[in-house]
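Memo to structure team: turn this sequence into structure tokens by end of day. - J.P.
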Amino acid sequence: MLHLVRFGELSLKSRYVRRQLQDTLLGNLHEMFAAEKVECLTSVDFGRIYVRSDDDAATRSILSRTFGIVSFSPTAESPSDLPSICAAAAVYAKPLLHAGMSFAIRPRRSGTHSFKSQDIGREAGGAVWTAIPGLKVDLETPDQEIHIEVRENHSFVFHEVVPGPGGLPLGSQGRAVALIEKPRDIAAAWLVMRRGARTTLAAIGEESLAAPLRRWDPRLKIQTIEDPQDLAVTARAARAHAVVLPWGADSLKGFDELKRITGDTVPFFPLIGLSAEEIDALLLRIGA
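Reply from structure team:
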């Protein structure tokens, strides 16, 4: 199965930085697949990453937990000439649509071709309509959308767009140490990891409290500490650029105590603007 993978912020960077971030993202993907003992083949062009694997369920799980991925789609691939696109769309639609349903073709094109996106929508829509009698075309509120993305010499047909975590590739934005005292604290660590910081967890108590984050970083380091005062030492040992604290606005410590805890390392408070309901929803997404 081929999965078409999209990234968001990476596309806004300069060509040099974008290439670096793409390489980091590919390396992270390979680590995630290796940790799950799933084989995959990856390739990349200027705007997409392509992941091939025989284990669809595992691939979906891994892609949905890889920072830097905005969304992905299981897809059928074909050549980029218009007859091949139409044939692929008709084959793809047969198990998806039946008489009485309405549908719409959502075309997108990148590169140089002898046809326009409107031509793809018209011709592929006609091929699907002919292949499955009784269908209706509804471009506003169809029962089913079929996306066709044409990129240079290849075209991709899909109907699912599965969200990823977004953010930046893990390890692309320095190092951090996150304090873990309570189950909700892993939400603060996850938000900093999502921004690309390779994060060491400083857990007070059992390491198992932070275990859910191992699914998001196969190389995750967890250290146990006795007291928040040990954070400054842990941050120096980890050569961290930031200390992540889970406190909200209602529990911020005084400046002197904060200085004792963080030392010379910059403190971050990712949860300070989130409500309890938003944190609970985030924990559900993390798998905690």
